[in-house]
Amino acid sequence: MEPPAMENKASEPEAKLLVKQHIRFLKRTLGILPSSCESLDTNRMTLLFFAVSGLDLLGALDSVSQEEKQDIVEWVYAQQVLPDKGCPGGSSDVGGFRGASFLGMPFDLTKRSAGVCNDCSHVAMTYTALATLLILGDDLSRVDKRSVLQGIKKLQLADGSFAATALGSESDMRFVYCACCVCYMLNDWSPIDQDRVAQFILKCQNYDYGIGQRPYLEAHGGSTFCALASLVLMGRLHTTFSPARVEGLKLWCIRRQQTGFQGRPNKPTDTCYSFWIGATLHLLECASWVDKLWNTSFILSTQSKHVGGFAKWPDTHPDPLHTYLGLSALSLSGDLELHPVHAALNISQRTVQWLHHLHTTTPPHSHSM
Amino acid sequence: MAEETAAEGYVPYRSRPEWKDITPVPQDDGPNPVVSIAYSEKFRDVYDYMRAVMQRDEMSERAFALTADAIDCNPSNYSVWHYRRKLVQALGKDLREELKFTVSVLREQAKNYQVWYHRQKLVELLGDPSEELVVTRDVLREDSKNYHAWQHRQWAMATYQRWEGELEFVEQLIGEDVRNNSAWNQRYFVVTHTSSLTDEVVRREVDYTLGNISKAPNNESAWNYLEGVLRGQRLRTYPGLLDSCEAMYTKGIRSPFLLGLMVTMCEEEIADGGPKAAECCSKATELCNSLATSVDTIRRNYWDYVQRRVKQTYQTTVPTAV
Questions:
Q1: What confidence score (pLDDT) does residue A10 get?
Q2: Which residues in chain A have Cβ-Cβ distances shorter than 8 Å to B27?
Q3: Mean per-residue pLDDT for B251-274?
Q4: Is there a contact between B147 and A41 if contact means CB atoms under 8 Å apart?
Q5: What backbone torsions phi and psi does residue A216 show, to the nearest 5 degrees?
Q6: A207, B230 in Cβ contact below 8 A?
Q7: Catalytic hit among B111, B121, B145, B283
Q8: Quick check: B10 contacting A, CB < 8 Å?
Q9: Exposure class string for A38-66: b at 16+ Cβ within 10 A, else e
Q10: pLDDT in tens, B216-252
């Protein structure tokens, strides 16, 4: 599918942030989604994260009632996979969060006799679940941290990368990032081999200095962000990449700007890359190289005037992912109507402050890895 | 919805006599659900039964058939795919038939992670990658930059050491679209895994790339490939490269990649404290100005940074200079 031609636009491109419309769009996301979202059934946790974090950046969390916030927290905790005793094909001592209730486990934890067969957590859902809880001010006291971390440990492969579920899945940079976020949030890196992660990332830096999902795969904005953010969260950026590699990566990234950003050379610009590449440039401390006007104009042009939200391209149907990443990218570029975002964790700075507060006040759980 | 499904001849599972013994399991999101999806009748029916059999880990033909409906409703449900893999093995299903099934899903959903992973697992079980190059080629014909297809193709080639014909395939794609970055990336993959970057191979690759650059001087993919195959070598003294660049410049070509490479070659000379360091410093400064003010203005802040860096390098390596 080709992006709509820019020159056919009859009207003026949207120049301002449609705050009210986006709040409405995200609140609708929290409610009922149309059947066209059926393919996102296993990913509802990510949709929840986009909505809650998006409202947070818009400073509109208080438009969600205390009751509804509590409903959200309860639903998130209901997706926690708890260690269970010997269900064939299920988890034994591994935890984490699942994306939704599609396997039919009872919502009420007291009604559960045992684990559900074929059930497992998913690392991206664990990341977005923890993030959502933190954004809503939860102290993570109901998170079975030990089993979550055990779950992360089970996902790392010999090459240093991560799969998403204990039952097996593809492995690539997306899940490296999610695993690192979980360890950072739980303030415990013991389940993962950071050296191997760094080695994997190094192998994924391609001949053009961009970073692919796996070694030898095409350099891509999404995997580049995942790699950089992982290294920054581990505190290993400059011990992994030489100055030459860092300089090359910076140039690869800044060359993605066309108006907004593209994800790969010679591909169309897409709002989400304003975040993936924009955040990478922040982490590399060269965000000042971005032409803000072109970037923000493009992102704003992908807003949906009537429905709210952002899409990948102008005149295209909006979705929660592009909405959240559009907002996050605008926040990074300094939009004063949005709360500041933490480039590596992709949640508000305010939430990260709360997280750091938890780190200093929560006693560490027992380490028995 | 009911009219629609009846018209197709589709019978809901809850009306099928052979499923009478199964109590469907509805999804339970509690009293106050969030991010709820308004599932169609068919989706709900299929998944209420899918949940029921998965919870008992039922290994049966009817469960296997149900997974096809569940996948049709939501091909991204990795739990259903995992369960289907267990059924394929438990029931001794024909793996080649199952490969055909993945092709039918790929036709609709070529960007779905789960179907590609399922195919990979089947190929591993069979130990037979013979179809993978054809399947990925067909997908790439529809979308020559499909990341999943390229990933699967690279996996099959590297795992089973199937390299023959790939350079030709890559050249065909570059011939069709010289700006196809995925094709250039694949070229690097093939060359480094087969012949490796010997002097002879690098020469061949540089000439091939310069030929493609002359056709489209503003094509980032080719320029990135050029610098990629020359990584670790001194660009300024690579035979013919500086001459080729200067010839393009003289002809009036103002590609930001050409000028960027010329700046890089100047910086090399300066960093080495070579005889032309002073000349290179002023040349690089001029090029950076040109880039910042007319050739690549969107990146003016970057080119200003490079200009400062060039001057700094000059001042630290040529301390007697003013």
A1: 42
A2: 101-102, 104
A3: 97
A4: no
A5: 75, -10
A6: no
A7: B111
A8: no
A9: bebbbbbbbbbbbbbbbbbbbebbeebee
A10: 999 999 999 999 999 999 999 999 999 999 999 999 9
Of A72, A216, A255, the CB nearest to B189: A216
Length of chain A: 369
Beta bridge partners of B146: none
Q: Are A227 and A173 in contact (CB under 8 A)?
A: yes
The token pair that represents A17 in the structure block: 């942030």
Provide the b/e sequence for A140-179 (b: ≥16 CB within 10 Å). eeebbbbbbbbbbbbbbeeebbbbbbbbbbbbbbbbbbbb
pLDDT in tens, A71-101: 999 999 999 998 775 455 555 678 999 999 9
Using the predicted structure, report yes or no on whether residue B319 has a pLDDT greater than 80.
no
Longest dimension (CA), chain B: 94
pLDDT of residue A127: 98
ipTM of the complex: 0.96
B82 touches A at CB < 8 Å: yes
Among B22, B23, B25, B35, most A C-beta atoms within 10 A, so best to mutate, is: B35
Nearest to A42 among B77, B219, B298 (CB): B77
Q: Determine whether the interchain pair A206/B188 forms a contact, defined as Cβ–Cβ distance below 8 Å.
A: yes
CA distance A35 to B109: 18
**How many residues does the structure list for chain B?**
322
